[in-house]
Write a structure and sequence with these properties.
Elements lengths: L6 E7 L6 H6 L8 E6 L6 H7 L3 E5 L5 H14 L4 E4 L11 H9 L5 E5 L5 H4 L4 H18 L11 E4 H6 L10 H12 L4 E5 L13 H22 L20 E3 H15 L1
Parallel strand pairs: 1-2, 1-4, 2-3, 5-7
Antiparallel strand pairs: 3-8, 4-6, 5-6
């Protein structure tokens, strides 16, 4: 807790068994009230390790995608009483040590959204970001800054913090279930007038760190361009874009389950039968 605000960390996870312990180990538990991990149908030991580490753990019935994973993360964090929610990838690419300043920027009322930018400073290239991703990032960011009439150093980081009010306001269920979700969410934050701050963050690129391949990067880039165009056309009244309309049909929560509760129920059943 910080300044009376309950702080939750959410971890959208997929095959993160090799890095989850290191990531969780760096989370500042003196201010973080709870860590919620949502597994998107991993084939490794991610779920078992998450339970062993004492995380509040949910598992999708199958692999739905990174965007759907975040939708579940935010729903469960809000349902458990979070005032500030910080997304941290469990692949150890971003430093959990920066949770404290990011949370502080929100807890003391300066911003509604804070992103950890790899572009501010020398975080991206120094950390090993491939050159094609770096230059694509810069081009797409320039394009979006022009069409959104805003200024961010990047729109593509996966290290983000939000107030409860932002997560309750943005029509997140209208967004993609894939990687484009991240970009759509920031475009929505701009559209709805959220105060967005940035903090320079280092990023680590190594074998175990998750990263989309070239083909999916191209698909993502095209999606970013279309999201920017939809934003501008929606603002001009030439297109009614659902992601900027202020409402969306809520997803039913029937596609995932909480692991701990299942295990507790099983234990109770065994105890009762004995």
């Amino acid at each position: 807790m910080l300044n009376g605000k309950r702080i939750f960390v959410v971890m959208p996870s997929y095959n993160a068994a090799k890095t989850i312990a290191a990531t969780v180990g760096d989370v500042p538990r003196d201010i973080v009230d709870e860590i919620v991990l949502v597994d998107d149908g991993s084939s490794d030991e991610t779920v078992a390790l998450a339970v062993e580490l004492g995380l509040t753990t949910f598992r999708h019935d199958r692999n739905f995608g990174y965007g759907r994973n975040q939708k579940t993360c935010y729903r469960e964090a809000l349902g458990r009483g979070a005032d500030i929610v910080i997304m941290v990838h469990p692949d150890y690419q971003y430093s959990p040590n920066l949770i404290v300043p990011m949370a502080g920027m929100i807890a003391y009322g300066e911003y509604d959204v804070v992103i950890g930018s790899r572009i501010l400073g020398k975080g991206a290239l120094a950390g090993g970001m491939p050159l094609y991703k770096y230059f694509s990032n810069r081009f797409l960011t320039l394009f979006q800054n022009i069409l959104l009439n805003f200024k961010l150093s990047e729109y593509h980081t996966g290290f983000r913090a939000f107030t409860r009010e932002v997560l309750e306001t943005l029509p997140l269920d209208a967004n993609s279930d894939d990687f484009l979700f991240d970009n759509q969410m920031l475009a929505q934050a701009v559209h709805f007038g959220c105060r967005i701050g940035e903090i320079s963050t280092p990023a680590r690129y190594f074998t175990e760190a998750s990263s989309i391949n070239f083909a999916r990067s191209v698909k993502y880039g095209i999606g970013v361009l279309w999201t920017s165009l939809k934003f501008r056309l929606h603002r001009m009244g030439l297109l009614e874009a659902e992601i900027f309309a202020g409402s969306a049909d809520r997803l039913l929560g029937d596609y995932y389950r909480e692991i701990a509760k299942i295990e507790e129920s099983s234990t109770e059943s065994v105890t009762s039968s004995n």
